[in-house]
Amino acid sequence: MDSSDVPEFTPNHRVPPRLRDYFTDASPFHRHLESVRKHTSFGQTPFRRKIPECSPLQENVDPQRIAFLLHKQWTLYTLTPMYKFSYTNLNEYSCLLKSFIAAEKQKGLAVEVGEDFNFKVIFSTLSGMKGTQRDPAAFLVQIISKSQKSSKNAEEKVVWTGWFCCVYGDSLLENVPDDFTCLPLFLANGAESNTALIGTWFQQTFDCRFTRLTISAFNLSWMAAMWTACNLEHYVAATELLWSVPCSPQSLDISYAIHPEDAKALWDSVHQSPEEITQEEVDLFIDCLCSHFHRHFKINLAATRLVCVSTSVASAHTDGKIKILCSKYLIGVLAFLTELAIFQIE
Amino acid sequence: MTYRDYYLSPAVTCRLDQNQRLLGSAGRKALRLPVTPCSQKERWIWRRRSSLAELLTIRSVSHLCLLAPYLHRVGNQLERELASLPYNPAEGSSDVVPESPSPERPTPATEQQMSPTCLQTSVAAMSSQEAGLSPVIPVIPCTRLAWKMRQNESGLGPFNPQYGPSDGKEEFKSAESEYAALQQAFKYIRKAKKKEATLEKHLQTVEDIAWTSGLGPEDIDTLLEVVLSSPLRGDTVKSRMLKCLIPTTLIPECAVVKAFSKLCTQNYSNSIKVIFFRWLIAMFDFIDHKEEINSLYGFFFSFLQEESMSCYICHLLYLLTKKENVKPFRVRRLLDFQSKVGIQPHLQALLSLYKSFCPDLITISLPQNRKYYFKNTDNIWQAAICIVKQRNRLPELPSMKLSFGISASQPQKKKWNSGCIIPMPTSSYTGKKEQGKGGSASLDVIQKVFPIEQLLMFSHLLENIQDIQLPSQICSVLKNSPLLHYLNCVRDETVWLRLYYWMSQVLKEGCTWYKVSDYTTEEEFKSFLDVVGKAQCFLQEGFPSSEMFLYRSLPLWDGTSCRSEYLQLLSWLPLGNFSEIRTLLRDSLAPLFFTSSIFHKCSVLFSLKQLLQNWLLGYAMKVNVKTMMSTSSDITLKVVDSVNELVSFVGWLSTNALRLEENNSFMFHFILDFFETVSDIYLNYNLPLVVIFPRGVFYPALLTLDSVTLNHLCYIMYRYRVNLTAAKENDVIREERQKFNKTYRKFNDYVTALVDCLWTSTSFEKGHFLYIDPEIMEKTKIKDYKKSFNLTNHPALLVYSIYFLLQGWPGEKELALGTIQKKKWNWYLDYLLLEDLHGLHLFMESSLNVADSASSASSYPDAKRPKICTSGPISV
């Protein structure tokens, strides 16, 4: 055989790059490793954050689309960068995913790609759902079932929805080469079995990995503070915090609801700088709420765990479930979730 | 016609007949053992043995299961008969395969190797454990048949003695007559129109020859042609002949093509077709080329219509299919067929092969529990195939037939994205766009692809290295060693990134002491860490993700869970600035080290030794690569610094650990092991660095109670001397004289201390390391305390000196260690060497200048007082 046929494997050509070479001094990964070496443990989060605000890019999004995403409970996942994902192939992906789901549902039976079934899979981009221009476009995946009764005006019903997004994901993006698409946040609504199927397909096709994103009590208190800080013209729901008391046989939940305007007033008294929120302010805000509760009920909430926060902006549960209520602060909420997701995958 | 090889006594034959009935027709074919009564007693004993030996060469497990009852009975029978016969030792003693067999009837002395005892044991072993037969069966390729097969294996010609090396006339004749008989039989069968006695005779001839020695390529060609063009109406004769198609070596492709084209054109009954396809499947590995057969793919494919043979056709297509055969219309045909027959395992297998070639055309998800997708290889030919394979020395490859069903080995997962489950490699999907936009026009340029699902062995990798695409999920390489090899030569950087993302996630999720999720048990995580560790070992470098994981999880580690696996990760920390890992080792590892059990300490020390070795090996490799391009003194200096710091860190750990564990000798072993590596850095790894171990290790080792430790210490001192002597020549070291002077001085101090203590007994004198005020020593009332650490009195060596006296002078009533002097002293030194204290001996040879300049303890000519010995320090 001509030696030119196998240039990649002949040792005299060049020593193939080693793992280590890729993480050399100059690469961003090395910087990342360095920072890991210095911190030496998990759990470093920023001490101050910006107040969430609307992104100018959000205006590009179809309001109907946004409305579709609101008032639904989403289960949160993190996703490592997807390898060789291409926005131009979305139609093809929907075709492949559809036949994959069909094949999985009837195990052992082969399915031709492109065949018609009683459901559809639709991939569509959510343009504008990003913080900066650098963020890759978000996209939506829907499973729509077609009722077979009347073929003429077939009723279409959305069975499952999931979307991938990245809002202000700069810290992750700068490290990742072009072959990868970074959409670290995945939100799913629908049966878990469908999520499993679709997740498996994405994992197999784009060599990525899904992990449930849980929100710690610490981050929940940040959410409580940040969302209270939002300026809303009218409030749709009370500010409610849920504390869980670990006791057997069943855990006891303490619900603590405040009028949103009272909460805002409390926050305004705690808050100083108009642009950013600091860790001290968040701690103080929660401490004030707790001491108020203690004065009335003689229960020390500091000994319990914050498991759920709901405000007029959004509500979040420590399990990693979120419901977004306000379209104005959608991007802000997603930005914080993206930050948490990036933190988990790094 | 003679049957040279098989003779059985009437008694055995009778049993055999019974068993044949049990075995069914397939077994009967396989065991066809014609019988000729024999008059000479000796001869038939041999023959029976050799026939059994012949049977024993058949190694296939399943076939042996078939044979088991038979072997068992024959074995017992033989055992009984052999026991009653006089044993001729000459028979058993020859164990050389004869270069050329005697022309006469083979005599026991040359032809057979199996001693009766050997036979008995093997038979007994077989009967006792019928299930796991194959490993205990000795392979005895000693019969005439086997010998002939070997002689013939290189040539592709028919088995024809004219070309063979045979020099015996009878042999020649019989083989020639066999050839003639075969040709005659072919000639006859070709024309035979009716079943009759002569035909039967000829059929018998062909069967006998085929089942004993197989048919050469030409004969197979002829026989196939004869069968398929025979004017006979009935199928029985044809199917009998088809079953005789057992190759001696290989099957010519053209014969198959010819036969298949006949099969397509003329009207044959389905049973003949089925037998032909079954034969093709069974003998697939013996067909010399497959290109032309593959070009008939469409014709084979068209046979799918007939449901009765669809399972054989699917199997055959499975063997034949290449990427270029997978076409949309075939996919559609297969799916139509599927909708007609429903879920069939053979069809599933073929479809999933199609999927692995073209994931964008078809999808299928196989159920988890199925293991076999095709019926087992036909047992008509199984025995024959084994013999042919052995004859051709084909390695026992798991052929493609078995490559499915691996998915079954995966455990049922609890949740779709949880746990440390490493998927099986599957072909990646490449977008249609990348395959070419031109549709049918671009079909010719479709890249050849070897489906990754079939890459099971290194040989597969070697044959298809150009056509391999990385699996869709890169993590699946971790458990697949051919793919790890491939990873080693692949130049795509994204591979490492994909692995990095995946692995960091899984390590974080699975880590049982950093609870992200409760999905993984410690056992699972342990085995995952083990897989990662093995892959790192295979690639000879650590993954950045596991390094990252170490930094993050070590501060939280309890020191017990997954200890050995976790510490294995530690030993692959990359070689960089020591300052980078100092915090990790000092702040996280050291506190854990000091507060944990001795076993933990030992495992940490062991992994630090591994770490040092990995660094040094990595450096040696780097230097080898770089020497051609440029001198790399700055790299060297960096490495010298890091290694130096690591060694002093371990020195600090060991000193404190020895105090904590009261100089435990088990731990000493690990510490000295580490410093043994250190002592050889210069010579073994070519790194200009010699670091002497700390006092905290040296003195406890010198005053130990354990002879192994003392011996090890002496050995290390010897290695230090060799390295230091060699390093004097090195340029770098010469440049940094000042620094190294300290090293030499330290070493010389140690040597002096060691010699003072063991040989000259001056360590208690003023200015020496054990100096204590003599007045105080007087008060202890120890007699002759000065000598209490010399070679005879040292607590670690006391056992030897006492045994030495007890063994040498058993009559002496009093044990006086002081009497080991002069001649006895030298005997004592010899004795220590005999007791494997080589380290001591090497040290003595290298560091002591005996006045008489005799180097070996055993060659001391005369009494030389040890006091004459003086240590030879290395001049600075």
Q: Give the helix tally of chain A.
A: 10
Q: N- to C-terminal separation of chain A?
A: 45 Å
Residues in β-strands, percent of chain A: 15-25%
Which percent band covers the strand fraction of chain B?
under 5%
Question: How would the blueprint of this fold be written?
Answer:
The complex is a heterodimer of chains A (346) and B (876).
Chain A: H1 19-22, H2 28-39, E1 48-50, H3 63-69, E2 73-79, E3 82-83, H4 90-105, E4 111-112, E5 119-126, E6 138-146, E7 156-165, H5 170-173, E8 180-181, E9 185-189, H6 192-206, E10 210-212, H7 217-228, E11 239-245, E12 252-258, H8 260-270, E13 276-278, H9 279-297, E14 305-310, E15 314-317, E16 321-324, H10 330-345
Antiparallel strand pairs in A: 1-13, 2-9, 2-10, 2-16, 3-8, 5-6, 6-7, 7-9, 11-12, 11-14, 14-15, 15-16
Helix pairs in contact in A: 4-6, 7-9
Chain B: H1 10-30, H2 41-56, H3 61-83, H4 89-93, H5 108-111, H6 116-128, H7 144-152, H8 169-191, H9 197-213, H10 217-228, H11 235-243, H12 253-265, H13 270-282, H14 291-295, H15 297-302, H16 310-320, H17 328-341, H18 345-357, E1 362-363, H19 382-392, H20 432-435, H21 458-464, H22 481-489, H23 494-510, H24 522-539, H25 544-553, H26 563-570, H27 578-595, H28 598-626, H29 633-660, H30 665-679, H31 681-685, H32 695-702, H33 707-727, H34 731-735, H35 737-760, H36 774-780, H37 798-808, H38 822-834, H39 838-847, E2 848-849, E3 870-871
Antiparallel strand pairs in B: 2-3
